[in-house]
Design brief:
The protein is mostly helical. It folds into 2 domains: 167 residues, no CATH class; 40 residues, no CATH class. It is built from 8 helices and 4 strands, in the order ααααααααββββ. The strands form 2 sheets. A two-stranded antiparallel sheet has the order 1-4. A two-stranded antiparallel sheet has the order 2-3.
Length: 228
Amino acid sequence: MGATSTDMSRRPTIGSTARACHVILRPFELACSVIVLGLLSRAIYLINQADIGQDSRILYAEVLAVISTLFSLLFVLPFLYAYLVAPVDVILFIMWMVAFGLLAARTGTNVCNSWWYWNYWGWAWGRWYIDGVPNPAWSFYNAPGCASYRVVLAFSFMVSIAYLLSAILGAIITSRYWKKDRPVSTHRTATRNISAPMATNPPVMAQSGGPHRPAETSVGTAVDVERA
């Protein structure tokens, strides 16, 4: 038999606050992933043009951005299934934090004034292999590609935090789902009072010409009676 009206009323519903948080977090995660994907794709293209070899950390962040973009598109709508993927949100949070840490470790606190930036990212992004090394008087803030690299670092960190918040939200909704979406009884099980007598045999109707036989009863102790 299908679910009864009581069972349907016990199914969890997603509140307006949870939906509002979801429709903010998922598009934000999508936007961050697309921005990082676009900037890293441009960097990889320029690095190939410069023929200086690909950095494995950039490739890792690029692949992660692709996965994150597809995941955000798939679960962007605030339906129940989009909240049940909280474990995946946790994994993406960890992976994005790793990506941010790996990229930030390349430059350290100097960022665009570091050796790696001037000899790798900036060398390819600024096409210094063609135009020559820029004027040393330039500030590292206005060096070619500096702003793009900083954007990659910033959005890598922000998208990781967004996935952490999505994981927390999904865990809350999932816990409510498992607590509420449980039927009290099924069509095969009936709940009865423990103090009520429990019939062991059905009453036997008196037959013509024979004595009347009363139904036998005994006190039951089971709460749930399994019916055939």
